[in-house]
Known about the structure:
By secondary structure, the chain is of the alpha+beta class.
Amino acid sequence: MLNFTVKPGEYFTIGDNIQVVYLGGSKTHCKLMVDAPKSLSIIRGSVIEKNALDEDDKIKLKKYYPEPDISPELKEKYKNARRKKENEK
């Protein structure tokens, strides 16, 4: 799974004909705009889960599991590298 950070107004593409634009958000919400051909179905995950016929169908649905948190030592290493880079500017 690809995990990256974009700023409001930035976008990424999927294939040649799908563009996803990050419009902004807060700590718990984000706004996305998806520009894709009308021939593609774009359905919110909660709608798919809500419409699953029975428990077996719900179990078969793919779930996203966030990556585990990095160690405190590695966090500190990244913070120090970022500080060093900012001080060089």
